[in-house]
Amino acid sequence: MDRTQQLKAMVEQNREKIFAAERYIWKHPETGYREWKTNAYMKKVFEDLGYTLVEAGNIPGFYTDIDTGRPGPKVCIMGELDSLLCSNHPDADPETGAVHACGHNAQCATLVGVAAALKEPGALDGLSGSIRLMAVPAEELLEIGYREGLRQQGVIKYMGGKVEFLHRGYYKDVDISMMIHTSNLPEGTAFSIPKGSNGCVVKNIDYQGVSSHAGGAPHKGINALYAATIGIQAVNSLRETFQDDQHIRFHPIITEGGQAVNAIPNLTKIESYVRGASMEAIIGANERVNRALAASAAAFGANVHLGDRPGYSPLNNDKNLRLVAKEAMEQVVDAAQVSFNDNWSTGCTDMGDISCVMPAIHPYAAGAIGVGHGNDYYIDDAEKACVNAAKALVLMADILLRDDAAMGKKVVAEATPVYPSQEAFLAAIDKLMLDKDAVIYNEDGTVTLDYKN
Predict the structure, then answer these.
(1) Of the N and C termini of the chain, which has fewer Cβ atoms inside 10 Å?
(2) What DSSP character marks residue 387?
């Protein structure tokens, strides 16, 4: 049996662990920074396999290192712990509305498969360097108000789990990062290796008005809900001015619009992102969005508090890692089932933040059915979603670290990350933070809009 067949067999030997993890985590969905049951399950699996873990502590998540005993790059393989919210999904948690309608339960099971395979005798033979296995929280960028509360309490600094882990130093000595996401791929496609995806800024938008009796004295109030709806419409009117190749997206939700039907709403809360294909495009579009929101508040004599936070950076899959993924995946399935393409997703992932500071890749595996983030999404084929994905990641690690880690060293040497260091990246995204009331009512009766950083 050659090396490739041996490694695939090591994953196969642990298929029951993989399937058990996928099912358990599907049945116990938890949203970002709340994944304590999932974390406990994954922790026990890893510790039962003999791993010593470094735990995040006050948030879910952990990592562990596997050292080959020979110098070389450190390759990080990740799985995401969190679920979505989709309360009308048949399998949603009836109390929280949480459900794994994006397949992170399959990612966790894949990570279990990788961890188990790498404990098999001979798994590290001929490899140089090390492998970090990491269970990461909070990839789905939701419950923005809750996460802002954690930020204000000092529990986290950043909304997304990977960038929070970056801030905590958990990628400090990592050279290469990779993971595989489950998706509903076209018939006949087992893996997809796209070019990349959008990034985003996260927004908490609080319109502030004045309460009054809605029937008896509406003229004495300032309707925050009306100001907010005009703000949304103002941004909608900007849409045709966004350039197609920048992939700008703005998709707000109102999380609070008033407390009593007979009172003029004095506070309306909105959560949204501004997404785009580059940080330059995101920053430019976000400034125009903020101007429209501020002007709409001023039109009513209201105010709007703009709370902008770094969301996720655009993902650019490393060119050499894409080739490594292609080689590995073609050893798992027929070459015709591997789609190597230049597709660009208008969704976002915090893997984009990692790709800003090191070579990284975030391809997709088949095995899901239904619409991603929808109420008909399921892992239909755990063999494709989890077992095949685990095989591909183990083979990728082997390709990168065999032969004195020649390919891993090539990937690192030829990578062109956006920022020269992790510290420079964090300093850059910190400049995206904004906290201010955007309308100033001057004593002379004039109004000033203050919506820029």
Answers:
(1) N
(2) I
Query: How far is the C-alpha of 147 from the C-alpha of 32, rounded, in Å?
Result: 9
Please give the Cα distance from 193 to 325 (Å, whole number): 8
Class of CATH domain 3-195+317-418: alpha beta
pLDDT tens digits, residue range 120-133? Answer: 999 999 999 999 99
* Cα angle 428-433-437, degrees, rounded to a multiple of 5: 150
Left if phi > 0, otherwise alpha if psi is -120 to 50, otherwise beta: which for 334? beta
CATH number 3.30.70.360 given to 199-312+429-449: yes
- Residue ranges of domains in the chain: 3-195+317-418, 199-312+429-449
Q: What is the value of pTM for the model shown?
A: 0.93
Look up residue 276 and give its amino acid. Answer: G
Which pLDDT score is estimated for 401? Answer: 98
SS3 per-residue string spanning 126-174: CECCEEEEEEECCCCCCCHHHHHHHHHHCCCCCCCHHHHHHHCCCCCCC
What is the C-alpha separation between 241 and 60, in angstroms, rounded?
41
Please, what is the Cα angle at 277 between 272 and 278, to 5 degrees?
Answer: 100
Which positions ≥6 away from 40 have C-beta within 8 Å?
Answer: none
Asked whether this chain's domains 3-195+317-418 and 199-312+429-449 adopt the same fold, the reply is no
**Which H or E run contains 193?**
strand 191-193
pLDDT at 453: 86
Q: What is the spatial distance between Cα 399 and Cα 351, in angstroms, rounded to a whole number? A: 21
